[in-house]
Amino acid sequence: MKVLDLTRLLPGPYATMILADLGAEVLKIEDPGAGDYMREMGPRLGRESVWFHAVNRNKKSMRLNLKAPQGREIFLRLVREFNVLIESFRPGVMERLGLGYEILSSENPRLVYCALSGYGQDGPYSRRPGHDINYMAVAGALGLTGHREGPPVLPGVQVADLSGGLMAVVGILAAYVKSLTTGRGAYVDVALTDTVVSWMALYLTQYLAGAGEPHRGTEELNGGRACYNIYATRDGCYVSVGNLEAKFWETFCSVAGRPDLLPLQHREDDEARQAVQEFFSSKTRAEIMELFGTVDTCIEPVLDVSEVPEHPQIKARNLFMELPTREGSITTVAQPLKLRGVEVKADFPAPGAGEHTAEILRRLGYREQDIEALKSAGVAG
């Protein structure tokens, strides 16, 4: 699989990194100006963004001015060679560049074209700007997150961005597999908001089926039940309790020496949660984990980011990798898929902006003097 990647920031680069990790050839197409904004965001390793490295390994980069006629022609030549294109512009941008799906599919009928956007390619919000927080808000997920009677709380990770990126991978792979047998590509419309709405299936179906409107901090899985909640420990840390099943709650109560808590499992009132909290407030997090760490109950510590790499389960799963960069080696999160019987290729670092421009142009048949002329004219860089 060969992928042209016209995306920026997080959702698209996360999607194409997954494809690259799985063996696809991914070429980032960046404009000669700002390029991928993620290069300038977040903490830095020397001159480079750590965040950019986190989602752009195993890719190449080419700087190309798609507004210039020569840049457009180079891009069309690339489209004829590649199987997949993914872009994250607002609807209409590719058409204004003369590079819409109809034109590109006429150049390469097998092309799988994925349009990844905030609100999708149609509807009254299709051209509206937004970020993860906005898509979460519109989908209802933000309104369900937080304590009852309190304000909505931002999740610690970008749910819409990352889930949308993952959905783009699903759509691309499905369309690509089909193209291998039909010889025809497809147009894949992925909206970050749509993806979050699909993740709201339990709560939205509950409401639409007439079983009651879910609310923040009152439901079985968002902090309403005493048996499925977060509790503070004596030392100011926190533990997660997920004892939905009776057997797990019974084990918790037995080991805690608190049979009086048995009837409180599915209680939704403050009094029940406070009774459980009193038990956890009597012990440190370490004492809680020593008490429950080897018994059949669903209690785990709420870890800070600095504690995650040292957790024994995380270490056993080899979820981190060393990645060389131009500024030195960094440790980053590895591909989570564990595939047996699949050859694993060596990883390489995120590319510099336009690092492979000349290489790609040579591959297309351009001579050295042509490449220099294109760079001088601001067409490529």
Automatic annotation (TrEMBL):
InterPro entries: CoA-transferase_III, CoA-Trfase_fam_III, CoA-Trfase_III_dom3_sf, CoA-Trfase_III_dom_1_sf
Gene Ontology terms, MF aspect: transferase activity
SUPFAM superfamilies, sorted: CoA-transferase family III (CaiB/BaiF) (SSF89796)
Entry keyword annotation includes Phosphoprotein: no
Pfam families: CoA_transf_3
Keywords: Transferase
Superkingdom, natural source: Bacteria
PANTHER family: ALPHA-METHYLACYL-COA RACEMASE (PTHR48228:SF5), SUCCINYL-COA--D-CITRAMALATE COA-TRANSFERASE (PTHR48228)
Name of the protein in question: CoA transferase
Organism per entry: Desulfofundulus salinus
